[in-house]
Design goal:
Helix content is 46%, strand content 18%. The protein is of the alpha/beta class. Helix 3 runs antiparallel to helix 4, helix 9 packs antiparallel against helix 10 and helix 18 runs antiparallel to helix 19.
Length: 644
Amino acid sequence: MLSLTNIGVHFGTQTLFEDVSFQVNPRERIALAGRNGAGKTTLLNIIAGLEEPSSGSVGRQSDITIGYLPQHMLTKDGRTVREEARLAFADGESLQRTAEALTQTLGERSDYESEEYAEIVQRLSNVTELIAMYNPARQEAEIEKTLKGLGFEQGDFERETSEFSGGWRMRIELANILLGHPDLLLLDEPTNHLDVESIVWLEDFIKNTPAGVIMVSHDRRFLDNTTTRTIELSLGKAYDYKVNYSKYEVLRQERYEQQLRAYENQQKLIKDTEDFIERFRYKPTKAVQVQSRIKQLEKLERIEVDQIDRKRIHFTFPMTIQSGQYPIIVQDLRVGYGDRVVLEDIDLTLERGEKVALVGKNGSGKTTFVRSIIGEIPHQKGEIRLGHQVELAYFAQNQASLLDGDKTIFQTIDDIAVGDIRLRINDILGAFMFGGELSEKKVSVLSGGEKSRLAMIRLLLSPSNLLILDEPTNHLDLSSKTVLKEAIRKYEGTVLMVSHDRDFLDGLADKVLEFRGGKVINHLGGMDEYLRKLREREGLAASDTGGDNAAQSVQVPAQKGKEDYERQKGLNKMKRDLEGKVERLEGKIEEYEAKIKEIEEKLTRSVSPDLLNDYEKNSYELGKLMDEWEKAQERLEEFNNSTK
């Protein structure tokens, strides 16, 4: 379907990547991985034909259709949402010509068992299906199904696209692309503006589409659920893994360790060679050998190790004094704008130390609820009380606009960092993609995403005992998300998080509050329970005749709900403790394995009683740790099985 041969991109003397070669086959679902700046978006632009490579070539099937969702919006104004979606079906005559050409090609071939013949048959099937969709009734049904899957309500279809925010306009663009049923889908951060329900729908679409798919995403769970192949851009080269993202991370770690060993061996060889040259440089009897070693070093291809991707910073958000037992109490709350009621009859009590996720469709009231808690929106009815000694820190996307543009990135963080954390500012900036020379850039020249990321760091270094975070993972890469998740997990205060990132929330949120139909539904089983109920609901959607009543929450007796909640809270704590023990043991095992490896290398050069004693001692301790780890792992697996 598509092939890249020795693709390279150069900017003057700088090389972004070179000699990138791979093929894309029908139905393949590929994740494009690599750190920020590795060239992922550039490679997508080249595949889409929007940019030309500095070297190499792209081979595309002659009649291939490509649907490309870039990070920046393309939708124009002047049409309704439905009219914009209909553009996907505008080229019916071209499809008919394509079908005729494919039919003729099949009639001229006799290699019925070949892959090429099967591919042509599949393409003809796809085109024929698209032509069938030009039936007006089927076309409208497909449009409505796709728009609703991406979160639009029936009443949105006749609204002008100009009435929607950037995130919703991106959904319109995505709907247009998906409705066109291209042979190859190129998706650059497709989940950035989607809520959990829309992401789950898009996952199912990608799993079932006959198209090839190449995507860039910072959503690990989304990649794991949709892709079966991962191509990493690293150090200017491409590495092809025939596995999903999580398995790729394991294989990449193994590749890194092999690369590191090769690098260390080469460095030893270089040092030994340089020592030889220096020692015998001025001895005439060794002149030939010296010149030979000099040429050997000149011809040596130096091994590089990408250590940037392995950086990991550990820190904990600073706490102020401990808050009261109940930091937030909400009773009989109604919130809205004028005559429009967004939320009604909301009763909620947060306990100190809880980490609560707010989920639901965009526009369901999550941010409105948060803004009413901090006092930005007056509520129409009921009461919101902040508990004793609560000191609140709030992150919203518009906080980026409050940064001082005349300061550098480093100064912005240095101004608010206190205590020992000041010694680690460079490490923290690096963890959030502001490492090295970037830290000296002025805030005024940063992009919107970069400013948002900087505002997040600034907030998270401010002492508090109640954190309220609205979409905290937007603009973060996977490594930065891991740092943030670990810091929130260790935070002793209370956390409210509005997020659509399932991987980020999994194992972090004690409680999940779903905003739906103007109500709040408490999912005591956390993200697993919420996602299970969401899929059940989506699966029944076609035959659901309950209307608006289907969105109402089921009222559970207060005492039973409290008992269930306390039980689930205890289970969540037990799971975190078991996972923490397994993680700590794994860290110790790695330390002892490294010690043993170092001793083994020394034993290859010389054997001594002290070395043998060290080897036996460390091997014995490693054995004990392995036994302890196996028991802890078994307990964790038993616990997970018992709570399914």
